[in-house]
Specification:
The chain has six helices and eleven strands. It has helices spanning 13-27, 38-45, 49-61, 111-117, 162-173, 192-198; strands spanning 65-68, 72-75, 82-83, 100-107, 125-134, 137-147, 180-189, 205-215, 218-228, 234-236, 242-244.
């Protein structure tokens, strides 16, 4: 695309520029590629740098661009697709699960988690930490809380720590009969630990997906997954479930 001077249009200049930049992202740039600096882009399109910044900020909100400290503005990977509707019927760690286990510890959970799991105030539960990436970049982090009563045979398994221990916990919980899942989604702000893991600044917008796994008439596991808001899109289907789509034209599987 050659140098283009923006003509007078009824819509705001930054919005028209956003459309032009979107076309350029689709035709000229690859995922992860660094855009030219603001001065060069403003000169190329004949706009003020303030107008350019507005357009770039809009594209960042839409998940098309990422601003990374020490790197610059890069083209974002496709949005992650993951269904979180109640129609899903599989334990974490199943064959189609896109999460990667990182670690597992036995510790007393936060009071809110203990209440959901009906655990005592000083009762330790297994907390599995998992991550999800897209094209090599972190897009989500999860804490999966599992009471010891859900995995009673785990003590006999020789998996001391790390990812091996996490996989052992997941294998054991899959022995239970899954009766259903309950999900909730809310918009939040990244805490310091989440921000570090997701390569975002503290306070950046995130989507928090909480899932209760039901077995034996009780909550057998509780997942709290934090997604980068710039990598996910929520839509509400006719079934009442909530899905996160890859992009505006591609439905999550």
């Amino acid at each position: 695309m050659g140098t283009t001077q923006l003509e007078s249009v009824a819509e705001p200049k930054y919005w028209h520029l956003r459309t032009v930049l979107t076309e350029a992202l689709d035709s000229e740039f690859a995922v992860g590629e660094i855009l030219p600096n603001e001065r060069d882009l403003a000169a190329r399109f004949g706009v003020a740098r303030a107008t350019l910044r507005q357009a770039l900020e809009q594209l960042e909100l839409e998940g098309r661009l990422q601003r990374r400290r020490g790197v610059g503005t890069t083209v974002a990977p496709p949005r992650v697709g993951v269904a979180v509707g109640t129609e899903q019927h599989a334990w974490p760690g199943s064959a189609e699960d896109a999460w990667q286990p990182v670690d597992s510890v036995l510790a007393v959970p936060p009071a809110a988690v203990a209440e959901v799991l009906a655990a005592g105030p000083d009762e330790a539960v297994h907390t599995v930490r998992r991550s999800r990436t897209s094209q090599g970049q972190p897009v989500a982090a999860e804490l999966l809380h599992i009471p010891r009563s859900s995995v009673p045979d785990l003590s006999a398994i020789d998996a001391p720590s790390g990812a091996a221990r996490a996989r052992a916990v997941l294998r054991e919980v899959q022995r239970l009969e899954l009766e259903g899942r309950e999900n909730s989604v809310e918009l939040g702000s990244a805490r310091a630990d989440d921000a570090k893991e997701l390569d975002r600044l503290p306070g950046a917008p995130v989507l928090v997906v909480t899932t209760r796994f039901l077995s034996g008439g009780r909550v057998a596991a509780l997942s709290v997954a934090t997604y980068r808001a710039d990598t996910c899109r929520l839509t509400f289907g006719a079934s009442g479930g909530v899905e996160i789509h890859h992009g505006p034209q591609q439905r999550a599987s």
